[in-house]
Amino acid sequence: QVQLVESGGGLVQAGDSLRLSCAASGRTFGAIGMGWFRQAPGKEREFVAAISYTGISTYAADSVKGRFTISRDYAKNTVYLQMNSLKPEDTAVYYCAARKPGEVGGRPTLPSTYSYWGQGTQVTVSS
Asked: Coil, strand or helix: which one is 104?
């Protein structure tokens, strides 16, 4: 079982930056692929970014490429989402997700690829 706790959300203005953190429990963080998704009111949950368990491969949605960066710190069992040049359309609840330890393959952009989810953190960007 992997428990995830997100933090770092808040209310910012367009053009500002935020860094979201996701702390994972357990001793298997180094073997877990991680992802960030978001869900705006009335919309489906959508992929934002993902990182392989090695940290070598990263993926980002077209809507955030060049603005958002995913990274991970193995010593802290934490994955980050650095969000720059925020736009009002980035407003959503952001969720951290984790795959089963040791699991590889599949599509990191799909919610069904992930087995564990955090509770979410609200990001609101005002214009």
From this structure: coil
